[in-house]
Amino acid sequence: MQNKIYTYILFLFVLFVCFSVAIQQANAQVVPLAAQYYLNQYLGNPAFAGFDNGLRVNIAYRNQWRAIPGSPVTQSLTGDYRLPTYEGGKAGVGLNIYSDIAGLIKRTRVMGSYAYHLPLDGGTQVIHFGLSLGMMNERLDNESIIADPNDVLADLYNQRKTYVDGDFGVIYTNERMTFQGTVPNLKKFLRKDNTVSVDGSTFFVAISYKMGRNPDVLSLEPKFCLRGAQGIDNLWDFGSNLSFSDKVTLMAMYHSSQSSTIALSINYLNKCTLQGVYSSQLAGQREATGGSFEINLKVPLKRKDKDKSYTF
């Protein structure tokens, strides 16, 4: 029975990869927040909403290419929660607020998520499904534009309506292994929309395996990711997360774009986790761009049964 489940999951994973590669379209490269790889995987896959019990709040800030004026600045706020009394505790919800400013363009994406976690084989294996729906808004900063005041192009750009967008994700997990896949930007996929948006990615798939005799004390979790980005070849990432009793965590990733990412996370008394990240840029652009820095904060909130409130 267990072998049949593994075969079925592997088939779904391969099918998802092939399907995702087939839907690739043309546009710009996107660089995901580093927190998406381990610390806050809900950023990249709505099926992680309510993945663990309780309520979690995550904040991220990234400054890319600091040596270039008008370089991209990305901010993110997420929260996800496992609903303990709904669907037998198998459902989760989440909120993802994402803001990206690059030069004159500001893009804001607000998404709400619902996930369902289906146990298999007595709960040792779980399939997770997630869907996000929300709004996407793109605007130009008129005050920073240096141009003919009679030029109406900027006004026309800002007159574009906020539109509905979404993401779909699926995950398979057992005690050590995780398969996951995401189709982001459902508006582009369903309508074959080629317009530029905050996220030019077309798919994301990843596989990871947690190693160690006692993963709760010392664990090494290598991960391989494949990302589709519009207009360029597929990108891959390979690296690992090394955790010491969930107190101190080191992460290192190498990207097929010839860049790399390193991160250090510190868990303070199980009340919050602070992560600092540095990412180098493309090999030929490191001196000109200056790399990027990212700060992430994760705060788990625990529920008090008596007054049904939450505390650190």
Can you offer a commentary on this structure?
The chain has 312 residues and is mainly beta. It has 4 helices and 15 strands. The chain has a 14-stranded antiparallel β-barrel with strand order 1-2-3-4-5-6-7-8-9-10-11-12-13-14. It is globular and about 65 Å long. The N and C termini lie far apart (42 Å). The model is unreliable at 17-29 and 306-310 (pLDDT under 50).
Give the topology, please.
Layout: H1 2-22, E1 55-63, E2 73-83, E3 91-102, E4 105-120, E5 125-140, H2 153-158, E6 163-173, E7 177-183, H3 186-191, E8 201-209, E9 218-229, E10 235-244, E11 248-255, E12 259-268, E13 272-279, H4 286-289, E14 292-303, E15 310-311
Antiparallel strand pairs: 1-2, 1-14, 2-3, 3-4, 4-5, 5-6, 6-7, 7-8, 8-9, 9-10, 10-11, 11-12, 12-13, 13-14, 14-15
Q: How are strands sequenced across the largest beta sheet?
A: 1-2-3-4-5-6-7-8-9-10-11-12-13-14
Say which CATH homologous superfamily is assigned.
Answer: monomeric porin ompg
Q: Output the number of helix runs.
A: 4
Helical amount among residues, as a percent range? 10-25%
CATH architecture descriptor name: Beta Barrel
Number of domains: 1
Query: Taking Cα atoms only, what radius of gyration do you get, to the nearest Å?
Result: 20 Å
Q: In CATH's first tier, which class applies?
A: Mainly Beta
**Span of the ends, CA to CA:** 42 Å
CATH topology: Porin
Binned strand content: over 45%
Class by helix and strand content? mainly beta
Morphology: globular
Stretches where pLDDT falls below 50 for ≥5 residues? 17-29, 306-310
Largest sheet: 14 strands, antiparallel, barrel
Q: Count the strands?
A: 15
Mean pLDDT across all residues, rounded? 83
The topology string of helices and strands comes to HEEEEEHEEHEEEEEEHEE
Pfam families: PorP_SprF
InterPro entries: PorP/SprF_Bacteroidetes
Protein name: Bacteroidetes-specific membrane protein
Keywords: Signal
